[in-house]
Amino acid sequence: MDEARRVLESLEKGELSVDEALVFFKKEPFKELDFAKLDTHRGLRSGFPEVVFCEGKPDDHLKSIYEKLLDADGRVFGTRASESQYELIKSVIPDVSYDRVSRILKVERQAAERKGMICVACAGTADIPVAEEAAQTAEYFGTYVERVYDVGVSGIHRLLSKVELLQKANCVVAIAGMEGALASVIGGLVSNPVIAVPTSVGYGASLNGLSALLTMINSCANGIAVVNIDNGYGAGYMATQINRLAIKT
Prior knowledge:
alpha/beta, five-stranded parallel sheet, four-stranded mixed sheet, 11 strands
């Protein structure tokens, strides 16, 4: 989307002719790499460029994907990257950055302006990796994020001390493992949407997040939507969509 905007602005200023501008819009809406078809026009359709799920990708494929997406959009955002994948991409893109908590691997040469406000809340410190994936995803896509961490229901006074902040947010992302009760409690305190994220944190009967998932799906509080286990990225993306709608209105 950024490249399309630059082309249109150059056309408006008279720096490009109509025929020159058409060259961009005549391009294939994806880049063919044999092993991947990069959706380079996704930003035009949805307002969000394609994101890379790094885990499990062969080294050569990952390098090529990062190079091509960077060339197409001037930035790249990847999730679930390993330390070794960071070193790999750094060898060809020196200014790539890596966050070891969220495992986000990104090239962001000019950060997006952050508007509106969402709140990312998590029950315990063990949930922070998923919370940071959500928060940093939303920030990358231009959302201002407030973090409220370690406010699980086992010490509910910690959460209640942040009610005013939660109520101001255009959307709250509630992240919890164990029994996953945090989302239900927050859902009863705020008027705006809550996105619940179950995590795989917990002892044996938590079943790697299944218990929290079932609790969140069966919440008696209204206004709660649930994403998959440990899917901080999906929550950050959806929260940004909600935040953008709130800004428009």
